[in-house]
């Protein structure tokens, strides 16, 4: 049953499928399938009332993006994971603590079930970025 | 360049910082048909080399000759007041050297992808020094290997099977004589490959490292837990680290990109220095792109600094946070970008990418990537280590010679030659 939003820290990083798809080419559907994903623990999936593969919207302080939910039984409650790439970075601010390095790990976000939302393709996301949306 | 039966032995893989140099590549005509010994990503890189390629230079989406693309690139560079040259980690050392020459010639900023991966590692080392070792030394001697904030199963798939779970001179049975631990905020695939997984709370790496330092120095602490680990467990970990004959700490972006940034690395280096008062320990960063380590080395040889170098005053200056690519773009300071062998549109935060869409971008890359979509000028390049030779530096600093196993697509030349063409044209214009 959908009981509303979940508040988690989302971290980004590498996955094997992200690495393989990146080497094949970023403008491929393989890459989109590999990076437009949010891994959630069982408690978060249950709170959102969603099944594996359903769409969620992830909202940070600067924006929101729709991605596919994926159950990760090994994740600890309170933590979510999005593979590194343009979908995660769409939510990320540019503050680097004067080191050059943005905060790719542990970004505070809200996640909601979003069955009505469409996940942007890589081309659509590139177009959105180009148009400054 | 051909070898018997079109089989190339001992080819270094140009995917990650492991630079595994035992890859066997089989070629049929001008296609790679087999990769033996490579990991899943290596196979994709070699066998999929022809996919998603950028084959012709373009200016504003229209196909042009290489000369025309260079001409437009030179126009952009000469009309720019604050050019940013960025990327360089997925290409070979000679191309990097040409990029620094171009930066000096034009008074530009040159930064490499280190600024968004192990930049804090370098800052930490500048504060505290380095207690390093080599991958061979680890294989031959290390009886305790700890990965911290790293997921080699995904990012460096052969790191454990090729370098760590292998017998060495003093480690005859790698399964029993060497223990492998993982410290991370997530139970990743790597957790299932190691002997022990220790989960810590997010954003507590610095506290946990400093606690271990205090315990190793013999201090008693009046708290019950740090970072989600009980003090009793931390004491046991500290004793195990002190008791190792030769310990190695491999760390990943879980330390460099999280809260604390270079302070985490500073503390980790000091932890290793503390341990060296009792036994032998070394520390090594898990470098991601195959030649990002080389980008730091060539930049240091040529400019004196490893990344974030500004030539605006005619001599090199180093200031991370100021001359680093994300900061320069987020501040709206760069008025043109020359991107070589990287994809900042896919890997930079949104406001930095947003500025990229407002300035002219020259993109040199073998493949069509997200930066190609916003670039005014796209110039295809040969893939180093597959279609042209060169040199690259492994994560532990070992330089390796890259092999050419097939010809690049017709009319496509290496990054270094494209940059030399730009420099030659610029020198004529600037006379």
CATH class group of chain A: Mainly Beta
CATH class of the largest domain in chain B: Alpha Beta
Task: Please tell me how large the radius of gyration of chain A is.
Answer: 14 Å
Integer tally of domains of chain B: 3
CATH topology of the largest domain in chain B: Rossmann fold
Contiguous runs where pLDDT drops below 50 for at least 5 residues of chain B: none
Structural class of chain B: alpha/beta
Please indicate the count of domains of chain A. Answer: 1
Q: Main sheet of chain B: which strands, in order across?
A: 5-4-19-18-17-6-7-15-16
Q: With helices defined by DSSP (H or I, 4 residues minimum), what is the helix count of chain A?
A: 5
Major β-sheet profile of chain B: 9 strands, mixed
Instruction: Report the mean per-residue pLDDT of chain B as an integer.
Output: 97
Quote the distance from N terminus to C terminus of chain A.
Answer: 33 Å
Q: In terms of per-residue confidence, which ranges of chain A show pLDDT below 50 for 5 or more consecutive residues?
A: none
Main sheet strand line-up of chain A: 2-4-3-6-1-5
Q: Overall 3D geometry of chain A?
A: globular
Largest sheet of chain A: 6 strands, mixed
Oligomer: heterodimer
CATH-defined fold name of chain A: Barwin-like endoglucanases
The global form of chain B is: globular
- Count of beta strands of chain B: 21
Defining traits:
heterodimer; A: 133 residues; 6-stranded mixed β-sheet; B: 431 residues; alpha/beta; Rossmann fold; 5-stranded parallel β-sheet; 17 helices
């Amino acid at each position: 049953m959908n009981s509303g939003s979940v508040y988690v820290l989302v971290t980004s990083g590498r996955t094997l499928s992200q690495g393989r798809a990146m080497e094949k080419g970023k403008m491929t559907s393989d890459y989109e399938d590999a990076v437009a994903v949010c891994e959630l623990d069982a408690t978060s999936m249950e709170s959102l009332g969603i099944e594996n593969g359903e769409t969620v919207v992830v909202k940070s302080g600067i924006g929101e993006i729709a991605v596919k939910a994926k159950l990760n039984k090994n994740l600890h409650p309170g933590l979510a994971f999005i593979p590194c790439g343009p979908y995660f970075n769409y939510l990320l601010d540019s503050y680097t603590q004067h080191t050059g390095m943005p905060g790719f790990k542990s970004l505070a976000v809200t996640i909601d079930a979003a069955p009505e939302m469409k996940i942007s393709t890589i081309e659509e996301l590139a177009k959105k970025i180009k148009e400054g949306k | 360049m051909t070898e018997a039966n079109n089989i190339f032995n001992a080819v270094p893989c140009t995917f990650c910082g492991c630079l595994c140099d035992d890859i066997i590549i089989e070629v049929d005509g001008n296609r790679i048909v087999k990769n033996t010994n490579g990991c899943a990503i290596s196979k994709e890189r070699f066998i999929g080399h022809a996919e998603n390629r950028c084959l012709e230079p373009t200016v504003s989406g229209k196909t042009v000759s290489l000369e025309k693309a260079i001409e437009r690139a030179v126009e952009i560079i000469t009309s720019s007041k604050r050019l940013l040259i960025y990327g360089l980690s997925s290409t070979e050392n000679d191309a990097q050297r040409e990029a620094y020459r171009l930066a000096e010639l034009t008074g530009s900023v040159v930064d490499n992808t280190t600024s968004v991966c192990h930049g804090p590692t370098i800052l930490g080392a500048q504060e505290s020094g380095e207690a390093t070792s080599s991958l061979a030394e680890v294989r031959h001697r290390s009886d305790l290997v700890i990965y911290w904030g790293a997921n080699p199963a995904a990012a460096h798939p052969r790191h454990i099977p090729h370098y760590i779970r292998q017998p060495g001179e003093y480690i005859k049975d790698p399964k029993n004589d060497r223990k492998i631990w993982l410290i991370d905020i997530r139970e990743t695939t790597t957790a299932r490959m190691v002997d022990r997984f220790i989960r810590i709370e997010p954003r507590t790496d610095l506290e946990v490292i400093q606690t271990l330092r205090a315990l190793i120095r013999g201090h008693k602490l009046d708290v019950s837990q740090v970072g989600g680990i009980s003090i009793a467990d931390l004491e046991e970990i500290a004793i195990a680290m002190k008791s190792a004959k030769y310990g190695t700490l491999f760390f990943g972006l879980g330390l460099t990109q999280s809260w604390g940034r270079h302070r985490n690395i500073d503390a980790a280096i000091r932890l290793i220095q503390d341990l060296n008062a009792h036994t032998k320990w070394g520390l090594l960063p898990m470098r991601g792109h195959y030649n990002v380590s080389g980008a730091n080395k060539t930049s240091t040889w040529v400019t004196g600094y490893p990344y974030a170098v500004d030539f605006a005053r005619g001599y090199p200056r180093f200031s991370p946070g100021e001359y680093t690519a994300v900061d320069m773009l987020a501040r709206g300071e760069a008025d043109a970008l020359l991107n070589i062998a990287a994809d900042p549109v896919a890997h930079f935060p949104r406001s930095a990418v947003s500025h990229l869409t407002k300035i002219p971008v020259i993109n040199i890359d073998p493949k069509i990537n997200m930066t190609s979509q916003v670039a005014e000028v796209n110039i295809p390049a040969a893939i180093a280590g597959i279609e042209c030779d060169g040199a690259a530096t492994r994560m532990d600093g070992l330089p390796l010679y890259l092999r050419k196993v097939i010809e690049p697509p017709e009319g496509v030349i290496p990054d270094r030659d494209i940059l030399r063409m730009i420099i030659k044209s610029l020198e004529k214009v600037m006379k």
